[in-house]
Amino acid sequence: MKRPILILCALLSLAGIAAADEGMWLFNFPPTAQLKSKYGFDLTDAWLQHTQLSSVRFNNGGSGSFVSADGLTFTNHHVGAECIQQLSTGGKDYLKAGFYAKTQAEEAKCPDLELNVLEEIEDVTAKVNATAKPGMSVADQGQAQRAAMSNIEQQCATETKLRCDVITLYSGAMYHLYKYKKYTDVRLVFAPEFDAAFFGGDPDNFEYPRYDLDICFFRVYENDKPVHLDNHLNWSAAGVKDGDLIFVSGNPGSTGRLNTMAQLEFLRDVGYPLILDSFARRDALLKKFSAESQENDKIAHEDLFGIENSLKAIRGYNSGLIDKSLMAKKSAEETKMRDAIASDPTKKAEFGDPWAEIATAMATEKQIYLPLNYVERRGGFRGDLAGFARILVRAAEERPKPNGDRLREYRDSALSSLEQDLFSTAPIYKSLERLLLADSLTEMKEKMPDNPLVNNVLNGKTPAELAQYLIDNTRLEDVAVRKQLYEGGKAAIDASADPLIKVMLEIEPDARAVRKQYDDEIDAVVRRDGGAIAKIRFATEGTASYPDATFTLRLSYGVVRGYTENGEGTMPKGTKLPYFTTIGGAFEHAAQHGDKDPYQLAESWTKAKSKLKLNTPLNVVETADIIGGNSGSPVLNRAGELVGIIFDGDIQSLPWNFVYDDSIGRSIQVDSRGILEALRDIYGANSLADELMGKAQQSQPSERSGVDDGSPGGSPDGSKIRKSPPAY
């Protein structure tokens, strides 16, 4: 692993040990001293290198790992559920019935799944900042930095043939170039039934005790053959015990621990309320739609799961912001820093008042948030078909520009991933598209009743009437049509009679205007002043030793440990909760709830009960620092062996978005022992279990399987399905 000398290295060396087991640590700045001091563990370069190259990012919002030399890849069922649903065509429902490919020939290719493996990190802070010349306005500085990032990525991708992303760290104090090996031929190997993966449903989500087998397996291919890997994680059949030191290697999505009070108050007062209101209405909408038929239930299943998961997660995040003690702590920390700068003339002259500048930016964001959300970010035009239309309209305008002048999502280094999504053959369902578009148009009209653009788009129609007209008459569900428009560029877009294209062209001037205002007056300010605050924190307090999460590879650590319930979860206050649950506990949990949905165990489990070792650990809690995006992260022991997989956190862990506290907050994993027991004695997936244990893979057509062993035989026809909102 490349270990560049960072320009802030000297400041980082001042950083003290973070409280408890806190930290989502950069792989090129790992917590070596902390682990040695507290646990006597030597975190070597070889351990880190092997773990890094064995870890996988699922580009749809989750994490995973390689678990065999033949490309076998491990993640959560809910991370893989999008592909599982996409493959459920021709009368098949692999979410409900499960899936098991007993041979590699039966492994089913996902239409649009991209996996990334981090190969190298390079510091490019000086290169990015060199373009922000003294005397430039903050808007011009922001544009110059974005252009520099795009050009650095383009040069990297051209030279290395890797995926190259410049990542902003500490709000803008550092910029690192992440270089990824990309896999796009990803095939489903095994997934249990949804009832096993998400046993307990939404009532048990973010709760503990849990009894979930939230796992699935894929295999990565190149040139139509499984890849051979030099780095993969060895499977531990021994699991963990109370007090064990464990590590989590994954891609936490986003945290706000370094946010200013103005940013936190914006989320509390504006951002989260609007999101929660929107998710709540979609939750009710999708439940009603799903109840109308079995087919509706199948096609809306993944959307509904994502909405319910995100609703609960964001409510938990917001619980931290409405916690007066937490906000008082944040306010006191900020006041201390501001006073230290204000009382030092030299520092005041150097830094000014970046908190006030960010507060001004947040006031601007509050003013433009409705059009930003509903027009630019398509909150008023939901659905895949509307998304395709936006991409086609924007790509026609952006692709002819110099790389550095484009919107970031259309830079050269990002186009291959964008094209994979745009030309996906995943199925699309117009009944669901009509529903989502009509509801989002209705929501936009309710939130912005007097907006001229909204009224012009509706043009006298009701949202439902317009949605039906647009979806019934678009041809964007046809991949060939999308390719023709994309390759034809601006001339093809301008000549298109497709109604969704026309709508996106109509709203484009307003969308671009509010996007420019956001980029110039909000993003650029937060980048400049947030970076300044980070430098102040490094120099004055020495407590910020890791940056906020950025959906890039991080290392967390903690210990296996139970806790006593404080009354926020489903268990009575004062209940002592052990560090693990068992397979037998799942049967007891089902019986306690009358064996009724969502507490009805999959039939494969009930049939296999007499053969199972019921005392086998199934789910385990530990103190490792995680957040949404860590779903599917491997849990490792000191030897670097896989002892489990992160799939959730308890309800008390959700405020970790802003403040880490391990007194009760816990991450939750599926234990390696429970997984092996289920594979062998419930699903009869012995060849898969053997591969995990390092034995030669064999085809065993006579294996008993509790899940559907039919293969859809390749990619189905159709269009791209929706991505779930990232959460646990």
Description of the molecule:
With 728 residues, the protein is an alpha+beta fold. It has 25 helices and 21 strands. The strands form 3 sheets. Strands 2, 3, 4, 5, 6, 7, 8, 9, 10, 11 and 12 form an 11-stranded antiparallel sheet that branches. An 8-stranded antiparallel sheet has the order 1-14-13-19-20-21-18-17. Strands 15-16 form a two-stranded antiparallel sheet. Helix 10 runs antiparallel to helix 11 and helix 15 packs across helix 21. The longest helix is centred in the C-terminal third of the chain and has 42 residues. The chain is globular, with a radius of gyration of 25 Å. The chain starts with 8 loop residues before the first helix and ends in a 36-residue tail after the last helix. The N terminus and C terminus are likely disordered.
Strand percentage: 5-15%
Helix content: 40-55%
Figure out the total of helices.
25
Report, as a whole number of angstroms, the end-to-end distance. Answer: 29 Å
How would you sum up the major sheet?
11 strands, antiparallel
Radius of gyration based on Cα positions: 25 Å
- How does the overall form come out from the CA principal axes? globular
Helix/strand/pairing category: alpha+beta
Mean pLDDT: 92
Number of strands: 21
Low-confidence stretches: 1-18, 697-705, 710-727
Question: Which short descriptors sum up this protein?
Answer:
single chain; 728 residues; alpha+beta; eight-stranded antiparallel β-sheet; 25 helices; globular
